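Hey, can you fold this one?
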Amino acid sequence: MKKFIFTITVLSFVLLVTSCKSTEVNEKETATEKVADEKKQTTSIVESEYERATKDLVDEKVSRETFEEDKKTILQKISELNSIMKNFDYNSWINYIDQSSINYWSLKSNLSSASKKLPVKGIQLKSLQDYFRYVFVPSRMGRKIDEIRYISSKSIKAVQVRDEDIIIFYNFKKINGEWFVELPAL
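Sure. Predicted structure:
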């Protein structure tokens, strides 16, 4: 009888130990599968963002590496612009703007036309600095940019995505290898 009880005890112990090891292995496999699934989801998100960013290109192709580099650069510039806007630092801001936009928005006729379209009546834009203060800063301050969209390999829109809608907050133009803000014309 003692042998029987001893044998049952040993078998119970062996079953208990092997079932614990089996559970450990299953937990490790499950954790590994979760990490793999998360990597797939992240890769899928990046790939779908890349596809959205490049889908409107005609007769041009932008590599994933270029996309990632451009996005990083654009988001860094936007971060710098956010600090500039917070401080209303016009002199720093002007260095981020492309020259054709500076020329366009320095014309009194364009500033006058824009003044008539402002939501706050009575504001008269008399200079590019007024455009910065009354148009550029209020329309972009505190906005979150989610993605970029290529118009061409040298032109990008920085957008906020809301459900199916996109809101364009910045246009960037690549000039001599550097990205500059292109201010929209009337």
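The chain has two domains: 1-55, 59-181. Let me know if you want another pass with a different chain boundary.
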